[in-house]
Amino acid sequence: MSGPVVNYGLASLPGSSQPRAITIGKFDGVHRGHQSVVDQLLAVAGDAQPTVITFDRHPHVTLKPLDAPLPIISESQKIEMLHSAGIARVVVLAFDEELSSLSHRDFTRTVLVEGLGASVVLVGSDFRYGEGGKGTIETLREEGAEYGFRVEVVADVCEEVGQRVSSTLIRGLLEHGDVSEVAKLLGRYHAVRGEVGQGFQRGRELGYPTANVTNNLEGFVPADGVYATYVTHAGVRYEAATSVGVNPTFGDMNQRTIESHLMNSSLDLYGATIQVEFVAYIRGMKKFDSPQALAAQMGRDEQEIAGILEGASQA
């Protein structure tokens, strides 16, 4: 299946040659709340092309750089997930000074009307747009009446979980390692991906070889600890034990690493790109008295993880 049409920047907008059903947002995480928005957009789109306008960075990166949060997923992960949810076109705008200085009327005219030919625009109840967030749902409706598009407001509460789901909530849970709760809010396991690099080979020496994700890492890394995970490589999914942190037993690392041990496979994944899905938190990182004590604990971890994954959903 081919991917969506992707436009980067104001200059790449396709024009108004066809009608488009549009929603606007950061869509960081593409969580259940976002998925509900996409479902509603598809429901109201009719013959219009389902289109998401999103941004290349959190607005705080430009407006409040000291308060800018780390993204939950990468831009490429976001685009893939939106396409899987049914979006035909993704517009990625640079949230820079040029964009943030557009008045709400200029944003509507330049982006929604002339740039995309909006027929319907779906937004949340707290939607703000334009310079200083001065644009509101009321101004958007006025502009829609002027330019010929209608405005729909999406519900705040996600029916699947009975609450308002936010990226801030999910990010906070990941910071505490609560990946099982995160999975409920995402509707899938939280995942990171990247290229397997060269490690210290200590896992191999202990009988637990690991794939260390060190290069081109995408996705928010959860709290330090040991997790039950799935690792996917070349379309095949493997059960795995994954540790996140600096491995205090050896005491010579100062950079956090993601090390995954495939429990029923001996693949050499060096140089390959893998995805790690976090299913459940097992324990925190701990300094052991010896490498042998660490190996014994890793064996116990593997038994616990095997039991968790046996009963886990494969979704």
Supply the number of structural domains: 2
Q: Report on the biggest sheet.
A: 6 strands, parallel
Distance between the termini: 20 Å
| Shape call | elongated
Name of the CATH homologous superfamily of the largest domain = HUPs
The CATH topology of the largest domain is what? Answer: Rossmann fold
Describe what this molecule looks like in 3D.
This protein has 2 domains: 17-153, HUPs (Rossmann fold, 3-Layer(aba) Sandwich); 188-310, Beta Barrel (Elongation Factor Tu (Ef-tu), domain 3), CATH 2.40.30. 31% of the residues lie in helices and 26% in strands. It has helices at 32-45, 59-63, 75-84, 97-100, 104-115, 137-147, 167-175, 179-186, 202-205, 291-310; strands spanning 5-8, 20-24, 49-55, 89-93, 118-123, 150-153, 190-197, 211-218, 225-233, 236-245, 257-262, 273-283. Helix 5 (104-115) packs across helix 6 (137-147). The mean pLDDT is 89.
Jot down its keywords.
single chain, about 325 residues, alpha/beta, Rossmann fold, Elongation Factor Tu (Ef-tu), domain 3, 2 domains, six-stranded parallel beta sheet, six-stranded antiparallel barrel, about 25% strand
